């Protein structure tokens, strides 16, 4: 995993929290799109009025 601002300790805390079930990551997903539609919706995902918290791109 990587992040531009997170430290190793941050990742360890997040992983532990997920393993304990303390947070439900699915609650943060506000938008989903199949990869085929990504070129059409990408700009809207960057638009602050879209209220995107976490967008998931489906590559299956």
Automatic annotation (TrEMBL):
Organism of origin: Parapedobacter indicus
Entry superkingdom: Bacteria
Name of the protein this chain belongs to: Zinc-binding dehydrogenase
């Amino acid at each position: 995993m990587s992040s531009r601002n997170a430290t190793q300790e941050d990742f360890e805390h997040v992983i532990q929290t997920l393993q304990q079930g303390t947070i439900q990551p699915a609650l943060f997903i506000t938008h989903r799109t199949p990869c085929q539609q990504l070129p059409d919706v990408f700009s809207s995902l960057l638009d602050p009025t879209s209220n995107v918290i976490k967008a998931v791109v489906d590559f299956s």
